[in-house]
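Give me C-alpha cells for this 130-residue protein.
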Amino acid sequence: IYTALSYLSSVTELPSAKVVIQGEKIFANPVTLTSKSVEDCIFEAHRRYIDIHYILKGVEGISVCDVRALSPDTPFQDEQDIGFYHGVPSGTCYLKPGDFMICWPQDAHRVAMMYDYPAPIEKIVVKVLV
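Here you go.
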C-alpha cells in the first residue's frame, strides 16, 4: 500500500493507459466517468486485489459495506476478480481531488455516485494484490 500511495503522491494528471508499478502485484488504471444517481449505482467487490480510489478531478461518492451483508446480483467472476451486489451501505464518503479511499476485499464499494448533479470525474484506481 505504501508503494501505491507513493506512486499516487507523484501523479498530477490522469495517465493515458494502465501504469504498471510492480507487475501484476501493483498497477494503476485511469478512469473517467460521469457521476450518477445512487439508484443507478451498484456495489462491487474483489477477492484478489485491494482497490485504492484516488480522485484527480470532480467529486465522487463511494458507499461501502461488508460484502457478507449484501446479496449477490450475479455469480462472482473469478477471471475478472469482480462480483456485483445490492443492499444497504454502512457508510458513504464524498471524495474530492487529492482524496483517496482504500477498499479491502471484504469492502464492497458502490462508486460513481453524484454529489448534487451528474458531473465528470477523473480518478486512478490502484490495484494491490492481497
